[in-house]
Structure formats: structure tokens, C-alpha cells
Design a protein that fits this description.
single chain; mainly alpha; 3 helices; 2 strands; flat
Length: 106
């Protein structure tokens, strides 16, 4: 994977990022393009992590789907992560809440 280092001898996995980092204006013409590229890269990372580490992780599938949705923003991914976290907590305490994020904005 592009951001996953695996040491089979010690059953260790390390997450890394060797990419370039830079600042940009959030309201610039190219900001949306850059954020779409980052969302796609994060979706690939989530899928790789799931394939290598967590074979049965439906919430990771949903997270990758959020990243791939047309018009998604980075904020949407953070909101989805929080919703999944809250849904897991509710399920753990028997509240019976599903792990689905809120319906897509119109």
C-alpha cells in the first residue's frame, strides 16, 4: 500500500505519509480540485487498510464511500467519522442505532 508499512516478523503495522505538504487558500480556484485529490487518496488508504488489517469492517467501507461521493468535502468525511463513532457507541450500549451517516445533503 502507499501509506502502510507492514512488519510481518513483529505483527506490526505503521501508517505513514511520505507526500508533500503545503498551504493553500481554501477559497482559491484550485482548492476544490486539491481536496478531491486528497479525498480520493484517503479513500484508497482506507480500502488498503481494510484489505490488509481489518477484513470485516463495514464502517470502513462506508467511510470510503463517503470519500468517493461526488461533491464530498473534507468536512463531510470528518462528520461521517463522528457519526460512525457515535453509532458504534450507541450500539455498544444497546441503543440500536445503525452505523449509517446522515442522508446526503441536497
Amino acid at each position: 500500500g502507499h501509506n502502510i508499512l507492514v512488519d510481518d516478523a513483529y505483527d506490526e503495522v505503521r501508517l505513514s505519509d511520505f507526500g508533500a505538504a503545503f498551504f493553500y487558500e481554501g477559497d482559491s480556484d484550485y482548492a476544490t480540485l486539491l481536496q478531491n485529490i486528497e479525498l480520493r487518496a484517503f479513500a484508497i488508504f482506507v480500502e488498503e487498510m481494510k484489505a490488509r488489517v481489518l477484513e470485516n469492517a463495514p464502517l470502513l467501507d462506508k467511510l470510503a464511500d463517503v470519500c468517493k461521493q461526488s461533491g464530498s468535502r473534507i468536512e463531510d468525511v470528518f462528520i461521517a467519522c463522528r457519526q460512525f463513532e457515535l453509532a458504534d457507541m450507541a450500539t455498544a450500549y444497546g441503543a440500536g442505532v445503525s452505523g449509517s451517516p446522515a442522508e446526503e445533503k441536497e
